[in-house]
Specification:
11 helices; G-protein coupled receptors family 1 profile domain-containing protein; 3% strand; 354 residues; GPCR_Rhodpsn; receptor; two-stranded antiparallel ribbon; mainly alpha
Length: 354
Amino acid sequence: MNITAQNEIQPSMNATGENTSTALNSTPSPTNDISTTLYIFTTLFFSLIIFFGLLGNSFVMATLIRWPDMRTAFNLLIANICLADLGVCVLAAPLRIIETFRGWIFGDAMCYVLAPLQDVFVAVSVNTHTVIAFERHRAIASPFKQKITLKRAKTVVLVIWLASYVAAGVPLMIFLKNQLAGDGYYYCSLGFTSDKYRIAYKIYLVVLFIVVPLVLQLVRYVDIIRVLRAKDGIYAKSFKTNTLQWKALKKRLHQKKRLVRMLVVIVVGFHLCYLPRAMIMLMREFVPDLITKPWFMYVDLITLTMLYLKHVINPLILCVMSDDFRAGCFTICCASEGHESSRQEVPAVPRAIE
């Protein structure tokens, strides 16, 4: 379905305010070969996102729930990201499949309730990543300051969800409309009364949920790396090598470096998945001629793929780069298969570094 200047019809929304099935909606009918291929690709792709996203994020959540020593303030923030990713896999991705073939079948009321949730899920991920960056900076650059407690972390998580709903969900609800389209289906879509509102809304999303978090996280992690390198030099000058004190400090510093390295990879993966989609959204507004290019449809599909892959890659990164999560997931797998001997070979999951 084409987007008009005065009434922007976008059947599938994501956190960048973009149509998540632009290529599908730009085709006249699913009867031609290209449209049929795209419909099949969309169904298969979102089905894989649902399966692997549920599998990976469920393992991470189960690991944090099963071992009491893993229930730290820091791991609660990690769990919050997994919870938001699970929300996309359980709710947003299935809605995309249904919407692709049947439009919006849930009525007017659910249009205002369900449609904004994907934006809320992504905003929760963005805000939690930012909080983690500040918390890690506190732990490493100012270790003597009072650290965040588990009780306080629960309050922070609640505030993140409320703030994300207010900042991402409520503005989206203002412009949502459940409208009948030319194909005979209803779509829960954005309906802007003017171009100025549409452009302002998209700039608001990009600045608040991409540019500002990226800058804040970048500043914090750069300073964290600087502090870790400085501490490495201080330890080398202040303590004799091979002493117990030196070895203990080096071991803890090494653990902190590994944790920061893992977080940096997660953050880089997050922004690599979202920045291209944001660029596509801005290109639609400020370089509209590109939409007519034959290659634009494929770029649109690639950025869409990257957008949803973000909700799958976090558990993979955690299992590859964290011994704690890898051991926990392996133990849960063995337990589910009933291999008692394998469970005994897996070491207890240690407490995460604070």
